[in-house]
Amino acid sequence: MPGEQPAPLTDVDALRRGLEQAGYLADESLSTALFLAVALSQPILLEGEPGVGKTQAASSLAAVLDTPLIRLQCYEGLTAAEALYEWNYPRQLLAIRLAETRGAHPSEADLFSEDYLLSRPLLAAISHPGPRPAVLLIDEVDRADDEFEAFLFELLAESSVTIPELGTRRAVLPPVAVLTSNRTRDLHDALKRRCLYHWIGYPDAPRVAEIIRRRVPGVADWLATQVAESVRRLRGLDLVKPPGVAEAISWAAALRVLGVASLAEPVVQRSLGAVLKYDEDIQLANATGLAELLRGSG
Description:
- By secondary structure, this protein is of the alpha/beta class.
- It has two domains: 12-85 and 114-199, P-loop containing nucleotide triphosphate hydrolases (Rossmann fold), CATH 3.40.50.300; 205-286.
- It contains 15 helices and nine strands.
């Protein structure tokens, strides 16, 4: 891999331990996929349901590598220009006015120079000087349009971008690109072929409990265990938005703040908005019976 290789990434186990120290519990399969993404300098596509830890995986990887995390949040209508760079037009206009007060006329080269360039995530990742590659998180790439996806494929393949006024920028240290997708639409085969791939599923209840213990300071062991089991049972319902790890963490944090002594039906009823995000889902949980959902979680 070009550039300086970080000491912790001697093997998959070392990366897994590093992720654990950063507060992220990754299984061997995910640890291997992330290790290969770094070692091969190849983009990786992480797919899975919302809230299973795809974004956090990239953030924790950056922490292990001791390198910046540069995030591009994708959305419908996102353009290449918005993701790459833009010119500081207010500053350019000010420069023109200042020059005019002196009787001067700035040239185009003067105005379209490094001084007026605003780097957006993609250019910032390519331009990162090191000593280690930046982690470029392209979050929810499935929300972007087909045109942007095609542009992204070319950029990742070449690790370069052309700025008409300044020329081509080529990465000295190609970023470690982590793409995430909630699978709201199918991505093009060309992009998938370029990437390593890993599906992050819902972890089992014991792992969720351990994650809660690490992410919610001061949470009681019994509460982490009961929340994890209750979330598992909630996912068994036909919900609009099944709760993921993120919702389990939020719910445990809310219950800890409320100072609950047990995961009883009344406190669950009051706190359901921390774990279920649609009124239809809350109504379904109530109709199913909270006592039934809590059965066996104590």
